[in-house]
Design brief:
Strands 11-12-10-13-14-9-15 form a seven-stranded parallel sheet, sandwiched between helices. The chain has 25 helices and 21 strands. α10 (283-296) runs parallel beside α11, α15 packs parallel to α24 (705-721) and α20 runs antiparallel to α21 (668-678). It starts with 26 loop residues before the first helix and ends with a helix. With 750 residues, the chain is an alpha/beta fold. Among the domains are: 52-165, OB fold (Dihydrolipoamide Acetyltransferase, E2P) (Beta Barrel); 269-296 and 312-447, P-loop containing nucleotide triphosphate hydrolases (Rossmann fold, 3-Layer(aba) Sandwich), CATH 3.40.50.300; 478-666, P-loop containing nucleotide triphosphate hydrolases (Rossmann fold), CATH 3.40.50.300. The chain is globular. It binds adenosine-5'-diphosphate and magnesium ion. Magnesium ion is lined by residues 314-315, 420, 448, 605. This is Probable DNA 3'-5' helicase RecG. Keywords: ATP-binding, DNA damage, DNA repair, DNA-binding, Helicase, Hydrolase, Nucleotide-binding.
Length: 750
């Protein structure tokens, strides 16, 4: 068979080439780190940089971690083990005041001789392995090591240069030596010409920052700290810029598409709804309402994020937007993160609409529509009916959980997508629902977790933002106290307090982190628990975390508590069926069961105006934003509320800071700022959104606000001038790479 000439396969671009071509010996090991191509390896930035004689690094080790440590050998001893036979070599490595023990076992002394010779006192090197603890002493068992040999350089000048270089220390896995990564990177880098590595940062954006080739040298083989810092800054900016360019492009792409205009209609559902609202809209609700009305009436899709303090009344704002769309002949879908919340939204809308929601029913109003609920656990008959109403258009308003995203759900004319509590969803899910409209629907995303601006820019950068800051007038005060968990008298007083509130017609939530006491079951039910490992990494010395309170046990216990004699105590958690959950919530709302022991399923959105007390057990284990959300469940009516955070939080701990701040303020934005300071970087985006974590390696959303801001301005300018990035193929490629990484991570999580 002959192969036609033009079928000769082009080699893939340099960055896509397999590492096997260049470093065949290391391929398998590098693959364990997820590094397969030249591009992967070059973008595998060092974790840190060290220098000969650097100050301490041993202080921050935790057991089980794979670490690479610099140090100098202090002493080395070989002895025979009487009990087990064989010999043991113990080498103590010192770095500043700290020491680390390296241990080798062997049958015969001869097998250890090689190590003994290499690790003479005074030897400087890098040592890596998994940290273990034996009799209170941290050690590395059979570690890998690389000895520094400053004498090996040809002349004094060279040696001086080398000794000043910050040396890259990479994240490693067992069996992979730092030196292997170093030499693989160098091998690949040596073959580089600038033409091989197109720079995602266009010249005009880059300004005085180093180009890609120099920057790669700056992180992998810097001459000095200045060069390294400039390279790191550049990559930080690049990450922010690539992300902002994608967000700007997304935004521009949607904006360029036509949406069906859904102008308000006088005498329609919205007017009727407004006429029967039992309260006055706040100024903020009115203002944002007008803005949404205008945007819905336009021929390009609305893309808006509505941030609002807990209890600021976002649901009404969304309902009014949905009704405008229904008045204009379209459908609106409301996506909620939990079944409890979806059911509650449907109920709220039905109540607020009254006969306006009874289209086709006897006594329904002329202009009426229907509110249809769709959740995953509905029976098949209910589900079929719902699907029919949605597809046929009878359902003007569709409320649902993830079930709405299923391919079986088809809309007659979807005009508006509302996503409630967006922090529980990913961008992909938002897009799946949007794709169910014939054209591009309008989009309203709501979140009650106040998001610091830098995070909002990173996660929701494609949306315009509106903020509801005020909480409706007449909203009651809520006082918050931290109750020490180890004081039984205080707890007794807490139950007493519940009793008093119940006697006055109030309701109380008691929140637990777990469903039942069986520690083996993964039953934390959405609780976003914090693990406050001591900052010095000395996890071994800390007492084991105490078992968390569990709904089933606490409910049982409260039923037997004298203070609550005669008071019905209910339960609510994720393992109950939807009917059971509905009933529990209905009984609580009506007051038949005025004490509800619950997991964090009540965290988002649950709205029972008579609830006045909230007790959170193990409050020290919850994050700030979750506690803020939980507390938002009380004080929603006219009566003042009290929130009791039962916690084991000794002074000076992060937990104490969190709880102290919560007791001090109810301003979600202030709390979000504290939260951001206390949280570890990875948690911030991880909790907020899927994906974004993998593509941000150098950028720190918590600290690099100014970088993000600059990148955003530059990216918007560039995208405005070149919406398809036709002139900027390298940037386009970098965006595709980022998206591929996010998709991968998203798939991993589902
Ligand atoms: P969130 O913004 O946290 O989602 P909701 O939309 O659940 O808050 O509203 C909280 C409560 O406030 C609901 O009971 C709602 O009916 C009520 N509410 C909303 N707007 C107003 C208003 N303008 N005046 C009085 N109460 C209001
Ligand atoms: Mg809400």
């Amino acid at each position: 068979m002959t192969v036609p000439h033009d079928a000769v396969v082009q080699p893939p671009p340099y960055l896509d080439q397999d590492l096997g071509t260049y470093v065949p010996g290391a391929v398998k090991k590098l693959a364990k780190l997820g590094l397969h191509t030249v591009g992967d390896l070059l973008r595998y930035y060092p974790r840190r940089w060290s220098r000969w004689g650097d100050p301490a690094t041993i202080g921050h080790l935790s057991v089980g971690e794979h670490v690479t440590v610099d140090g100098v050998v202090d002493r080395s001893t070989t002895r025979t083990m009487r009990s087990r036979g064989g010999v043991i070599l113990e080498v103590v490595v010192r770095n500043g005041p700290q020491t680390l023990l390296l241990t080798w076992f062997a049958k015969h002394a001869g097998a250890l001789r090689h190590f003994e010779q290499q690790l003479k006192p005074g030897t400087v090197g890098l040592f890596s392995g998994v940290v273990k603890e034996y009799r209170g002493q941290l050690q590395l068992l059979h570690p890998e090591f690389e000895i520094d040999d400053p004498m090996s350089f040809e002349d004094e000048a060279q040696r001086l240069i080398e000794s000043r270089r910050p040396r890259p220390v990479y994240g490693l896995t067992a069996g992979l030596r730092n030196e292997t990564v170093v030499s693989a990177v160098e091998m690949v880098r040596r073959l580089l010409t600038p033409a091989d590595i197109p720079d995602p940062l266009p010249d005009e954006v880059r300004g005085g920052m180093p180009g890609i080739v120099d920057a790669l040298q700056g992180v992998h083989h810097p001459l000095d700290d200045t060069e390294r810092a400039r390279a790191v800054d550049r990559f930080r900016f690049e990450e922010a810029f690539v992300l902002q360019a994608e967000l700007a492009r997304r935004k521009a792409r949607f904006a360029a598409q036509a949406a069906v205009a859904r102008p308000p209609r006088a005498g329609g559902l919205l007017d009727a709804f407004d006429a029967r609202l039992p309260f006055e809209l706040t100024a903020g609700q009115r203002e944002i309402g007008e803005l949404l009305a205008r945007e819905l009436a336009a021929g390009s899709p609305m893309q808006r994020l509505l941030q609002g303090e807990v209890g600021s009344g976002k649901t009404v704002v969304a309902a009014r937007a949905m009704l405008q769309v229904v008045d204009a002949g379209g459908q609106a879908a409301l996506l909620a993160p939990t079944e409890v919340l979806a059911a509650q939204h449907a109920r709220t809308l039905q109540t607020l609409l009254g006969d306006l929601a009874e289209a086709g029913m006897l006594g329904g109003a002329d202009v009426a529509t229907r509110v249809t609920l769709l959740t995953g656990s509905q029976g098949s008959a209910a589900r079929r009916r719902a699907l029919g109403e949605i597809a046929g258009g009878a359902a003007g308003i569709v409320v649902g959980t993830h079930a709405l995203l299923s391919e079986h759900v088809q809309f007659a004319d979807l005009g508006l997508v509302v996503v409630d509590e967006q922090h529980r969803f990913g961008v992909e899910q938002r897009d799946v629902l949007r794709a169910k409209a014939g054209g591009v629907p309008h989009l309203l995303v709501m979140t009650a977790t106040p998001i610091p601006r830098t995070v909002a820019m990173t996660v929701f950068g494609d949306l315009e933002t509106s903020t509801l800051r005020e909480v409706p007038r007449g909203r009651a005060e809520v006082v918050t106290h931290v109750v020490p968990a180890d004081k039984p008298a205080w707890l007794e007083r807490t139950w007493q307090r519940i009793r008093e509130e119940v006697d006055r017609g109030g309701r109380a939530y008691v929140v637990c982190a777990r469903i039942d006491g069986d520690a083996k079951k993964a039953d934390v039910d959405g609780a976003d628990l914090v693990s406050d490992l001591p900052a010095d990494g000395d996890a071994g010395a800390a007492p084991p975390p105490r078992p968390l309170h569990a709904v089933l046990e606490v409910a049982e216990q409260l039923r037997g508590t004298p203070a609550l004699r005669g008071v019905a105590v209910g339960e609510l958690h994720g393992r109950m069926s939807p009917e059971e959950k509905d009933r529990a919530l209905a009984d609580f709302t009506s007051g038949a069961v005025p004490v509800l022991v619950s997991t964090t399923v009540i965290e988002v959105g649950v709205d029972v105006p008579d609830a006045t007390v909230m007790v959170v057990l193990d409050a020290d284990r919850f994050g700030i934003s979750q506690l803020h959300q939980l507390r938002g469940r009380i004080g929603r009516g006219a009566r003042p509320g009290v929130c009791l955070l039962v916690a084991d939080a000794p002074e000076g701990t992060d937990a104490a800071t969190r709880l102290g701040k919560l007791a001090e303020t109810r301003d979600g934005f202030e709390l979000a700022a504290v939260d951001l300071e206390l949280r570890r970087e990875g948690d911030v985006l991880g909790a907020a959104q899927s994906g974004r974590g993998t593509s941000l390696r150098m950028l720190r959303v918590t600290k690099d606000g100014d970088v993000i801001e600059r990148a955003r301005v530059a990216a918007r300018e560039l995208v405005a001038a070149d919406p398809d990035l036709a002139e900027h193929p390298a940037l386009d490629a970098a965006i595709q790479q980022m998206l591929a990484g996010e998709r991968e991570e998203y798939l991993d999580r589902t």
